[in-house]
Amino acid sequence: MTHPFRHLGTLAAVLCIAGAASQVLAHGDVVPQAVDTTGLKALGADFLPTNPYRKDKTAIRIGDSAFNQNCARCHGLGAVSGGIAPDLRYLPLGDEGDEVFLQRIRKGAVRDGRVYMPPFEGTLSQEAMWSIRSWLETVHED
């Protein structure tokens, strides 16, 4: 006759591993990384309505790094989304896309009390945000 708790140890181990895996795969609360915007013209406190760094090589380089440090965990490496968050390669180019981008990165997105994207205003500088936007335009797809 087998003992009724014979597989309890195995079950406990499986549940423990599954719980740990969910923590590894979850995005959880992540700390935004500082963005060094040295080399860019300072923009001041008032947010500009359009990207002043469009096609600026320094901004694109900074934006690439800033995206990887702060955005890729949800929006995917190279802005290729794995389905967790929108694929930012499809943001409209130019001023139209600037408006959408700036609103979302500054204010984030909350629906039904759930945070889908944290607000980055007060965490990332305007210069860092526009640098990210500059880089995103280099990976744009139609």
UniProtKB/TrEMBL annotation:
GO terms for MF: electron transfer activity; heme binding; metal ion binding
Transmembrane parts of this sequence: none
Residues of the signal peptide: 1-26
Cited InterPro entries: c550_proteobact, Cyt_c-like_dom, Cyt_c-like_dom_sf, Cytochrome_c550/c551-like
SUPFAM superfamilies from the UniProt entry: Cytochrome c (SSF46626)
NCBIfam families recorded: c550_PedF (TIGR04494)
Protein name: Cytochrome c-550 PedF
